[in-house]
Amino acid sequence: MDEMRIKSNTKKSYMGKKILGAILIIVCIFSCYFLIHNKRETIQNVDKHPDKTIVFLQPLDNYTQQEAMLLQNTLKNEFKGLFHKNFEIRVLPNINLTAELKNQNNTRYRADKIIGSLKKEASNHKIIIGLTHKDVSVPYKGKSDWGVLGLSIHGSYACVVSDYRLKNKKRDYWKVVCHEFIHTAYLYGHCPKDSSTCIMKDAKGKADFSNKKRLCGHCRNALE
Q1: Is 79 helix (H, G, I), strand (E, B) or coil?
Q2: Per-domain residue ranges for the chain?
Q3: Region of residue 188 (left: phi > 0; alpha: psi -120 to 50; beta: else)
Q4: Is-contact 114 60, C-beta < 8 A?
Q5: Best CATH choice for the domain 53-223 from the list 2.40.50.100, 1.10.240.10, 3.30.70.20, 3.40.390.10
Q6: Residues 151, 180: contact at Cβ < 8 Å?
Q7: What is the pLDDT of residues 190-221, one digit of tens each?
Q8: I want to staple 93 with a disulfide (CB 3.0 to 4.6 A). Which of 35, 82, 196, 223 is the partner?
Q9: How many CB atoms lie within 10 A of CB 109?
Q10: Rounded to an integer, what distance in angstroms lies between the CA atom of residue 54 and that of residue 86?
């Protein structure tokens, strides 16, 4: 009799574990669906207000929601001083960087490929900025794989910014984000005056934003 009870309890325990495992799988699938669905809903809702430009911060891989929200607050404060236009800034759920976005040697992520994956839902009133800690690269100076801080592609309304090569991430990351945002949203090039303190100064292949603080007068007037 005791042996039958033990077998019965063992069977119940096994069935209980199977049921619990199935529930966890369903919850995981639902959670993933919700994050993806929520991202699409957040972006698609902008179509109801086509006259309003919204900036979407897209955390990639291990770039956390908390980091993105801290950047969001910084950008809100800095944008007030940079532009004579209000931009709403939202943070999207994290998405992973897939292997298809890497370079030929699988050592870095290609910035242009990342933008290609982001631009599908972007437009002139939906600017998407990819945020990553990973090293990103582009073809530059005759090299097929040059590490960069960020990239924007004219007309894509999406860009990507990496802090991998920044020496002072806390101080300078928002500047690089603003630099790429202006390229992306305003379709504006580099500072024609090559002002050393202007955020839009061409980095010329150097990962240095230490002296760049604000827009110079020429660039500010051009963006008004």
Answers
A1: helix
A2: 1-48, 53-223
A3: beta
A4: yes
A5: 3.40.390.10
A6: yes
A7: 999 999 999 999 988 787 888 898 999 999 99
A8: 35
A9: 25
A10: 9
Given pLDDT bands bounded at 50, 70 and 90, which one contains residue 11?
A: low
Give me the residue label for tokens 């110079």.
Answer: 216
Q: Where are the beta strands (DSSP E) in 23-169?
A: 54-59, 88-91, 109-110, 126-132, 136-140, 143-148, 150-152, 158-162
Q: Which two tokens stand for residue 194?
A: 């090559």
d(CA 45, CA 194): 39
Q: How far is residue 61's CA from residue 197's CA, in Å, rounded to a whole number? A: 32
* Under 8 Å between Cβ of 39 and 171: no
What's this model's pTM, rounded to 2 decimal places? Answer: 0.78
At 158, the amino acid letter reads A
- Contact (CB, 8 A) for 176 and 167: no
